[in-house]
């Protein structure tokens, strides 16, 4: 988990050197989560779960017209209820998530619409699953003999944001997990998460940004 903080802080300092303007704000919203899970000859299906995400963001104006770098640090609760071998098995996980998108500030809708693309990193802080009425803590690690899954998730973050007011914008996010999370060689598990967030601008350094 320390590596995630180092990456986040490193991105901030390196990018801020080239930035004329930096904005900081708060983020809150909901997650709609599910997963792609399969074994040879078997594809597991289930019900997406709804949880929440809370945290903060920085928007750093880049020296390229219409582009900015907008990393976030989020406490993200996610859930999914797959049917495993006939039994519905709700899974709840708490992540520390760091989306690292580059945003394009378009001219659409009076220059209020922006699009983002970049990687994300997520580290599982805790998790539980319930099967046949019994709730069990998820053990994180890389040993298939004693662990349930790998804690580090890596994937692609895609965003569309709309500037509602001068200090408020709403965003739709989709995180596509690319890293294999199962410890079992024959079991493939990748996360999927839709996010709907409200972002509130709190503080700004440098010149007032022409684009939000």
Please characterize this protein's 3D structure.
With 212 residues, this protein is mainly beta. The chain has one domain (2-193): Beta Barrel (Porin), CATH 2.40.160. Helices cover 9% and strands 64% of the residues. It has two helices and 13 strands; from the N terminus they run αββββββββαβββββ. The chain has helices at residues 2-16, 108-111, and strands at residues 21-39, 42-44, 46-61, 67-69, 72-84, 87-88, 91-99, 102-105, 113-131, 134-137, 152-165, 168-177, 188-206. Strands 1, 2, 3, 4, 5, 6, 7, 8, 9, 10, 11, 12 and 13 form a 13-stranded antiparallel β-sheet that branches. A hairpin with a 2-residue loop joins β11 and β12. The protein starts with a helix and ends in a 6-residue tail after the last strand. The relative contact order is 0.21. The model is unreliable at 208-212 (pLDDT under 50).
Secondary-structure blueprint:
Layout: H1 2-16, E1 21-39, E2 42-44, E3 46-61, E4 67-69, E5 72-84, E6 87-88, E7 91-99, E8 102-105, H2 108-111, E9 113-131, E10 134-137, E11 152-165, E12 168-177, E13 188-206
Antiparallel strand pairs: 1-2, 1-3, 1-13, 3-4, 3-5, 4-8, 5-6, 5-7, 7-9, 8-9, 9-10, 9-11, 11-12, 12-13
